[in-house]
Amino acid sequence: MNKIVILTGAGISAESGLGTFRDEGGLWAQHAVEDVATPEGFARNPALVHDFYNARRAQATGARPNAAHQALARLEAEHRGEVTLITQNVDDLHERAGSRNVLHMHGELAGALCHSCGHRWPAPVVMHAQDPCPACRAPATRPDVVWFGEIPYHMDVIDPALTEADMFVSIGTSGQVYPAAAYAQHCGRLGAVTVELNLEPSSNSRDFAETHYGPATQVVPAWVD
Ligand code: BV8
């Protein structure tokens, strides 16, 4: 049994038309991180944060999975039970490409969360802070995404998967956000083969034994097939 752990970031969805964060003109060039991706920013101005995520939710709804997402779905189908796909992305392009075992460690645009009672429900395309929670009726609706300073989701599944990995493959991420940015070094130290597939070397490219650079729609299918 060859255990493969894959981590994806915004770069895998770039050729589907979804913005990345730290590239030229990216999301963090348009919005201050502390205003739209922290609990403090949400508390200060929930309408601004909902506008930010409503715009991304609409864009993601109109986007289509690309050849890189499809290649990963093929890999999972051909190696059933051996592939764990962890994504930092909040879009659903992996699922729409056919991937079935997707761990959204930074949450999902498709989710809504009540910050009063913790209830979760499927997000409407357009969400507002004063929308009443279906469970407790409090006007306390937020996007179900993980902001800076919040604990990533699925760590109980991710940590053992990283420990057991024979291979760790990082795709389309700048390697600047923790804990994901530490995964390559962690897996390498445990003896896993580490592979980076990215447009260009990331901040932690030195942590990888094997690297292939170019657009994801080219390097990912070439590596998978
Ligand atoms: C946590 C919300 C504790 C969702 C996001 C000091 C040192 C170490 C850590 C910290 C520190 N100070 C604070 C921290 C912790 C902090 C952190 O890492 N800060 C950084 C800035 C230093 N982390 C946290 O707070 C996390 N929580 O640590 O809790 C804990 C941990 C474990 C267990 C218990 C407790 C929470 C982090 C989540 C933040 N949420 N966003 C959303 O809006 O989407 S961050 C944001 O960055 C997104 O989630 C995104 O997914 C993530 C990573 O970005 P990338 O995906 O890499 O995108 P980026 O634009 O950066 O790069 C794109 C890449 O693609 C580039 O390399 C580019 O070359 C490439 N590319 C472009 N086009 C293509 C391409 N590749 C291929 N093909 C192409 N066509």
Descriptors for this entry?
DHS-like_NAD/FAD-binding_dom; 2 domains; alpha/beta; 9 helices; 225 residues; six-stranded parallel beta sheet; Rossmann fold; binds ligand BV8; SIR2/SIRT2 'Small Domain'; three-stranded antiparallel beta sheet
Describe the overall structure.
This protein is of the alpha/beta class. The protein has two domains: 1-17 and 65-106 and 152-225, 3-Layer(aba) Sandwich (Rossmann fold); 19-62 and 109-145, SIR2/SIRT2 'Small Domain' (2-Layer Sandwich), CATH 3.30.1600. 33% of the residues lie in helices and 20% in strands. The chain has nine helices and nine strands. β7 (167-171), α8 (183-189) and β8 form a beta-alpha-beta unit. The mean pLDDT is 96. The structure holds ligand BV8. Ligand BV8 binds next to loops.
Briefly say what this structure is:
This protein has 225 residues and is α/β, with parallel strands linked by helices.
The distinct ligands, each listed once, are: ligand BV8
Please give the radius of gyration in angstroms: 17 Å
Strand fraction: 15-25%
Task: Kindly report the name of the CATH homologous superfamily of the largest domain.
Answer: TPP-binding domain
**Would you state the CATH class of the largest domain?**
Alpha Beta
Largest sheet: 6 strands, parallel
Q: Poorly predicted ranges (pLDDT <50, ≥5 residues)?
A: none
SSE pattern, N- to C-terminal:
EHHHHHEHEEEEHEHEEH
Could you name the CATH topology of the largest domain? Rossmann fold
Instruction: Report the average pLDDT across residues.
Output: 96
The number of domains is: 2
Strand segment count: 9
Distance between the termini: 19 Å
Overall 3D form: globular
Q: What structural class do the secondary elements suggest?
A: alpha/beta
Query: Considering DSSP H and I runs of 4 or more, what fraction of the residues is helical?
Result: 25-40%
- Spatial strand arrangement across the major sheet: 3-2-1-7-8-9
CATH architect. name of the largest domain: 3-Layer(aba) Sandwich
Number of helices: 9
